[in-house]
Amino acid sequence: xxxxxxxxxxxxxxxxxxxxxxxxxxxxxxxxxxxxxxxxxxxxxxxxxxxxxxxxxxxxxxxxxxxxxxxxxxxxxxxxxxxx
Length: 84
What we know:
- The structure is a single chain.
- The chain is an all-alpha fold and 84 residues long.
- The chain has one domain.
- 69% of the residues lie in helices and 0% in strands.
- It has helices at 8-18, 20-25, 28-43, 45-48, 58-78.
- The longest helix has 21 residues, at 58-78.
- The chain is globular.
- It starts with 7 loop residues before the first helix and ends in a 6-residue tail after the last helix.
């Protein structure tokens, strides 16, 4: 029998679960930001199905992504929250 290949959305859910301990150590507001990172990944699930998974620097990149999202949100607040 053939193997069942997970959908990219399932992979995102599995990966999110692996980050559970990391998430617990974040401040409450940053937990929400980390959740957004995985939500944003799901928005691009179609593209994600054709890319091989990277294996290095996952923790560093995840930390950077959370911080960058925080900084973007801060800029949006300073700009009055207006979207263009």
